[in-house]
């Protein structure tokens, strides 16, 4: 694992956007795996800025998002479909038909997850997967469990994730209880992985995930087994790693 330490959130965002840009420049028709949450917002801002300057072209890029709440439709401003349009897709020249987010309105989870997994396979897999890190070590919505979930599946959100995400909703009661997410196996098949982390509140989980044992109790720890992972994190998030 490559670790890139940055001064702060802004610097993290710039370095992460640089890595994504390099991918798009080196392979204009690449498949980008994308994430939502608060961490990648600054990264997407940089990509939009560089696109506006004429430095980036998304016209041949395909995207696949990690996850989506079950039960939220695309117009819901808390859906990940909405988030991606608001923060990236509406501001760059990616083609709408080349953007993919699991369809949270599909009630048949098994069918939707199988469709999504097949879609990723038919695209030839993900070239570069962007990830954020949950406080409990989750990646996507792969929560701590007894075993690593392999493919795209429907999950019950844990209390800690509902608690963490309630800030985006009127109350905790409104946070959906389920989501569709790429599995750990899906994520691990990405050719390259870029995980971004910021803030002192993530320092413990950064240490446990990347310097502790590999266990499904800390889902991100599996990334230690991937051959091409870059962790871009600020000083605060790296403040507890062994030096
Ligand atoms: C988002 C996702 C989640 C977040 C994680 C960190 O698509 O899959 O795993 O990356 O919850 O969220 P933030 O960045 O809000 O701390």
TrEMBL record:
Its EC number is 3.5.99.6. The active site is at residues 67, 136, 138, 143. Pathway: Amino-sugar metabolism; N-acetylneuraminate degradation; D-fructose 6-phosphate from N-acetylneuraminate: step 5/5. GO terms for biological process: carbohydrate metabolic process; glucosamine catabolic process; N-acetylglucosamine catabolic process; N-acetylneuraminate catabolic process. InterPro entries: Glc/Gal-6P_isomerase, Glucosamine6P_isomerase, Glucosamine6P_isomerase_CS, NagB/RpiA_transferase-like. GO terms for molecular function: glucosamine-6-phosphate deaminase activity; identical protein binding. Belongs to the glucosamine/galactosamine-6-phosphate isomerase family. NagB subfamily. This is Glucosamine-6-phosphate deaminase. The lineage of its organism: Bacteria, Bacillati, Bacillota, Clostridia, Lachnospirales.
């Amino acid at each position: 694992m490559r670790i890139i330490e940055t001064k702060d959130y802004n610097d993290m965002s710039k370095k992460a956007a640089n890595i994504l840009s390099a991918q798009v420049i080196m392979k204009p028709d690449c498949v980008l795996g994308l994430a939502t949450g608060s961490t990648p917002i600054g990264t997407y801002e940089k990509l939009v800025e560089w696109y506006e300057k004429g430095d980036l072209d998304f016209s041949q890029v395909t995207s696949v998002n990690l996850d989506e709440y079950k039960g939220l439709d695309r117009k819901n401003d808390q859906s990940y479909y909405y988030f991606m349009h608001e923060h990236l897709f509406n501001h760059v020249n990616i083609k709408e038909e080349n953007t993919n987010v699991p369809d949270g309105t599909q009630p048949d989870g098994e069918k939707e997850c199988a469709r999504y997994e097949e879609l990723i396979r038919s695209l030839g897999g993900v070239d570069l997967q962007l990830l954020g890190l949950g406080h409990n070590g989750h990646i996507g919505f792969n929560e701590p469990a007894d075993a690593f979930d392999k493919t795209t599946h429907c999950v019950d959100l844990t209390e800690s994730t509902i608690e963490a995400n309630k800030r985006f909703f009127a109350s905790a009661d409104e946070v959906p209880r389920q989501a569709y997410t790429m599995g750990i196996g899906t994520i691990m098949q990405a050719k390259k992985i870029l995980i971004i982390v910021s803030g002192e509140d993530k320092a413990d989980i950064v240490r446990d995930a990347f310097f502790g044992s590999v266990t499904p109790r800390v889902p991100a720890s599996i990334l230690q087994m991937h051959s091409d992972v870059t962790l871009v994190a600020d000083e605060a998030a790296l403040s507890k790693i062994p030096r």
